[in-house]
User: Fold Phytoene dehydrogenase from Coleofasciculus chthonoplastes PCC 7420.
Amino acid sequence: MRVAIAGAGLAGLSCAKYLTDAGHTPIVLERRDVLGGKVAAWQDEDGDWYETGLHIFFGAYPNMLQLFKELEIEDRLQWKDHTMIFNQPEKPGTYSRFDFPDLPAPINGIIAILRNNDMLTWSEKIRFGLGLIPAIINGQKYVEQMDQYSFSEWLQRQTIPPRVEKQVFIAMAKALNFINPDEISATVVLTALNRFLQEKNGSKMAFLDGSPTERLCQPLVDYITARGGEVRLNVPVKEFLLNPDQTVQGFLIRGEHGDEVLTADAYVSAMPVDPLKLIMPQPWREMEFFNKLEGLEGVPVINLHLWFDRKLTDIDHLLFSRSPLLSVYADMSNTCREYANPDRSMLELVLAPAKDWIGKSDQDIVAATLEELKKLFPKHFDSDSPAQLLKYHIVKTPRSVYKAIPGRQAHRPSQETPIPNFYLTGDYTMQRYLASMEGAVLSGKLTSQVIVRRHESGGSSQRLFKQVDSKEVVGAG
Ligand SMILES: Cc1cc2nc3c(=O)[nH]c(=O)nc-3n(C[C@H](O)[C@H](O)[C@H](O)COP(=O)(O)OP(=O)(O)OC[C@H]3O[C@@H](n4cnc5c(N)ncnc54)[C@H](O)[C@@H]3O)c2cc1C
Assistant:
C-alpha cells in the first residue's frame, strides 16, 4: 500500500516507520522546512541550537524507549539521577528534592515523598495519601471519571489541604499541560501520578543528547527512506479531495511546481488538531466523529533559551521553578552532550501559562524572565558583577498540545475514522498517554496498526503489532 501522511511530527514519522515495518510505502508530507513539529529545532548562525520545547523523556515511556531501541540510538538518551528537584520560592536560590531510592515501586515513590520535609508537612502527606485511596482502589475507571473535574476541584472533593496544591501541583500541572490546577483535568494529573508511583523508573528522566530534529527525527527518516518510504519537507497538504461517497480521492498539495494531487491507497492526518479542523471537508464536519474535534484546541506556550557569560549552576537535571511566570527549566550546558559548555550556562525555560504573554514582544518576555532569574539564582544576579545575558532565542507556540481541561477525553477521536481510507494520528488522538512524545509515538503505531488491519484482514481485530504498554495506572492491576 502507498499511504500518504500529512505531517512529519513524531506521530506522522512513527506511523510511517511502523508502516514500512509491515512492508508498506509511506509518503510523509510536511508543511514546514523542518522535521519534528512540536519537537522541531533550529541552529543559529553561531551553530547553537534552539528548540520548540524543553523535552524530557520518562522511564514511563515504553513505546518511545522501544523506538530508540529499534532505531539503535538508545545511547542518545542521557538518563539523570532518579530525583525531582523543586526551587523554593520562600528561600531563593535553594532546592528541595524528592529522591527515589533504588527500590521497587511504589515503595521508592512513597519513601521519596516521606523523606521530603521541605514542601509538605506530615499531616499534608497523610491527607494527600488518603485522598488518593479511591484512585488506588478503583483504578483507571475512576481516573477517567474524574475528567469531569479540574484538579483543584478534585483536591477539594478529597478534602486535601490547599497548600498541597500550592506547594507541589501548580508546578506539576504547568509541566504537564502548561496550565494551572484550576484548569487542568484531574484525569491528567492522576494519570501521571499513577505512572510515577506504579513503575519503578516511571519518573526517571532523560534528556536527548542533542536537538530532537537531528538526533531523533532524522534517524526515523533514514529508517523510513531506507525501506522505500519518502519524507518530503515544504509540502503542505492544502485540501482533502473527496470522492462522491466522501472517501478521500487525493491530497491537494503545494508541490515544487505549484498545486498537484497526490493519490494513495490510504490517507493519514498527522497534523495537530487545530490545522486539521481548518481544512476539514464540509461533508465530514457534519459527522459526529469529526464534529467533536471542535472541543479540542491547542494551548499557548513559550520556550526560551538564554545564553550567559558564566556558569549559573552545575545541576545536571530538570528543575521545577515554582515561579508564577515559568514552569520547568534546565541548564542545557550541563544536561545535554551536544550543548555542553564548561564555562557558560544556556538555560532553556518554559514560560507557562502563556496566554497573557504570547502576544508580547521578545524583549518584554526576556525582561520578565530575567526578573524571575534573580529569585532563582540570587548569587549571580544580586552581586556587584551580575551575570550578563549574551544572547537569546524565543520560540512561541500559540497552539501547542490540546488544552486538557475537564471533559476533553470525550472529544479525543480514535485513530480509525468513519471514512474507510482516512485515518488520524497525533498526540490528541485517543491513547492511554497524555499529550506527550510518548502519546505521539504510540498514536502513530496504533494508526499503522489499524491501517494494516483494515487492509489485510478486512476488519479483523487481530493485533499485528505489539503495543508496548506499561502497567495500568494506580490500582488498576
Ligand atoms: C514547549 C513544549 C514542551 C514539551 N515538553 C514535553 C516533554 O517534556 N515531554 C513530552 O513527552 N512531551 C513534551 N511536549 C509535547 C510533545 O512535543 C508533543 O506531544 C508531540 O511532539 C506531538 O507530536 P505530534 O506528531 O502529535 O504533533 P506535532 O509535533 O505538532 O506534528 C504535527 C506536524 O504536522 C505538520 N502540519 C500541520 N499542518 C500541515 C499540513 N497542512 N500539511 C502538512 N503538514 C502539516 C506540522 O508542521 C507538524 O510538523 C512539549 C511540547 C511543547 C510545545
